[in-house]
Write a structure and sequence with these properties.
Order of helices and strands: EEEEEEEE
Shape: globular
Number of strands: 8
CATH class of the domain at 11-18 and 39-108: Mainly Beta
Strand content: over 45%
Number of helices: 0
Oligomer: single chain
Structural class: mainly beta
CATH superfamily of the domain at 11-18 and 39-108: Jelly Rolls
CATH topology of the domain at 11-18 and 39-108: Jelly Rolls
Length: about 110
């Protein structure tokens, strides 16, 4: 995959919030942050874009079914099912489902409230 390929806008993606926890009362110094767990479904041909960063928003992904292609630094990597990828402060990427079946992931991350 070329670095020149731009990520299309998000299409064919469904996101369901499974759980959320305000981290302020749980851990000193994390006021205004939330730990969340989402179920993300990418239909065949779906794109989760545009290119976005995880600076200040770390997370982890686990693929329940199907295959998801993660595009980073001009490299396309296929994952699933099973362990996916970490999303740390160095992660700038976009995702797509190149398969013929829906792809489903569990995404857990820390986000800023508000």
């Amino acid at each position: 995959m070329s670095k020149d390929r731009a990520a299309p806008e998000t299409q064919g993606v469904t996101v369901e919030l499974l759980a959320a926890l305000d981290l302020g009362p749980e851990i000193e110094g994390l006021a205004g942050r939330q730990l969340r767990m989402r179920l993300v479904t990418l239909a065949p041909g779906a794109v989760f874009g545009p290119v976005h960063s995880h600076k200040d928003r770390p997370g982890m992904v686990y693929i329940l079914q199907g295959s998801i292609t993660d595009h980073r630094n001009g490299v396309a990597t296929d994952y699933g099912p099973g362990p996916g990828w970490p999303e740390d402060r160095h992660t700038t990427h976009w995702l797509e489902n190149r398969g013929s079946a829906p792809a489903v992931e569990v995404s857990v991350d820390i986000v800023r409230l508000g």
